[in-house]
Every structure is written in C-alpha cells, then in structure tokens.
Amino acid sequence: MDDFELLIDLHSNNERQGPGSESATQMAIELAGLDRSTSLEIADMGCGTGASSLSLARCLNAHITALDLSVEFIDVLRKRAAKEGLSAKISPIVGSMENPGFAQQAYDVIWSEGAIYNIGFERGVREWMPLLKPSGMLVVSDITWLSNARPPDLEDYWLKEYAEIDSASSRIRILEKCGFTPVAYFVLPEYCWLDAYYHPLIESFPEFLSRHGNNDKAQALVDAELREIAMYKTFKRHYGYGVYIARKL
Ligand code: SAH
Question: Which DSSP string corresponds to 3-25?
C-alpha cells in the first residue's frame, strides 16, 4: 500500500474523518435556517464515510449528493446509508471537489465538513458559489486561527500542513468578496476534536498496525497522527475548526 492507501485504510473504519459531531451539524442546520419540510438538494463535498450526509438525511427532507475522492469511503457510506434505510436520500459519488461536474445553480445547500482545505478555502468558496441556486446556503468548516499571536512552532506546523490557515475575519471577508452574505460563525467545541474524532482514531491504531504487520510506513502514519493530536492538545487555544454559514446573494 502507498501512503494515501494507508491513510484511507486507517480512517475508513471510523465514523468521521475529521472533527465534528451530530450536535454541531444540527446547530449548523439551525443557524442556516434550513426548512425541514421543503425538499432540498444538498451537495456534501468531501463527505468521507458520511457522518454529515447521514445526519442531514436523517433530519431533513433532502436529497444529498455525497462526493468524495476515496472509493473506499464512498463504499462505507453506501453501506451505512443502506443500513439506516437512507439510500433513497443519499447518492454517494466518487469524484473530486476540484471538478465535481455538478450542474450550475442546482443546489439549495452546499455542505462541507473538514474537507475544503484540500483545495483551499477561497478556491472552494469561489468555485462552489455558481453551483448554488440564488439564496442558496453554504455551510463549511475549516481550520481557523483563534488567536492573533501564535507560538512559532505552531505557525511552522500549520503553514506546512495548510498554508491557507487564517482567522475568521479573513475567511468572512472572502465569503463577502465571493458573493455571499455571512449569516453565522461558530467554533467547534473541544469534544468534536477529542471525543468524536481523535479518541476513536487512537483506539483504532493497534488493529491498524497489526493489519499491516507493524511495518514502518504504517508506524510513520500513526506517529504523524500522534504528533497532530499532541499539537492540538498543546495549542488548542490558538486554533480550531470554524463553521462558516453564508447565503448566496
Ligand atoms: N466530511 C468528512 C471527511 C473529512 S476528511 C467528515 O467530516 O468526517 C477530508 C475528506 O476529503 C476525506 O474523506 C478525503 O477523501 C476527501 N478529499 C480529499 N481530497 C478531495 C477532493 N479533491 N475531492 C473530494 N474529496 C476529497
């Protein structure tokens, strides 16, 4: 397995592949003012194994096009949707958010949790805007600086991982520049990182390592995840996941 395949293998058994929670998704639904009775077309960009797609399908009268680059994650989502009797509401698709091939003005909502960093916040916002119907809603979570002054080690780490990491005010300015009116912003609480994401991930390490005969590449991946987790625990005052909710003008 190459590094990407190993990464997919490590994460595919987990409920989510980034920080978030059922209650945070529900809060974003409320703040976006999504009507639970009208039928909605939603695109979930970088859906992973489908934590948010499934939440949306459970509580909204919606059809969700759930897009991810990983065939394995999409397979898991297909199975999870079938198990919950939600297959008719979710269309899982393997594809890239860079060029999803979606029709213009086709969606009431574009949703994306912990995935826009793959193409960068500004590019995602700019390129997804035309896919929304007029007055459509964008709900997107992205890594955000929570403080103005940061320790140099932390800056170095994140500038290597995601050079576009920025403050909420800069993100909101981008939304305004790209034809949106910002409606709400909140920061994911700590349990969305630790209880919902990092702790289940840590629990999956022993099985992952034994599945791969404790080889060096698998161990290196676990070590990198542990570094990321340690970084979060040390510096969580300085960064978090911001959830941005905006209406297309
Ligand atoms: N939204 C999910 C997954 C977040 S992890 C959750 O919150 O659990 C980021 C996801 O982006 C991964 O599933 C990864 O496979 C996907 N991804 C990475 N690059 C992508 C691309 N270019 N197009 C679509 N999905 C991509």
Answer: HHHHHHHHHTTSS-SSS--HHHH
As averages over each run of 10 residues, the pLDDT of the chain (249 residues) reads 93 96 98 95 98 98 98 98 98 97 98 98 98 98 96 93 96 98 98 97 97 96 96 96 98
User: Ligand 1 atom closest to Cα of 73?
Assistant: 13
pTM, two decimal places: 0.97
Choosing from 118, 127, 161 the residue with most ligand 1 atoms within 8 A of its CB, the one to mutate for a pocket test is 118
Task: Give nearest CA residue, ligand 1 atom 5.
Answer: 17
DSSP 8-class letter at 213: T
Q: How far is the CA of 97 from the centre of ligand 1 (A)?
A: 9
CA–CA dist 221, 76 (Å, integer): 22
Strand partners, 64: 42, 90
- Token reading at 13: 């058994």
- How far is the centre of ligand 1, averaged over its atoms, from the C-alpha of 247 (Å)? 23
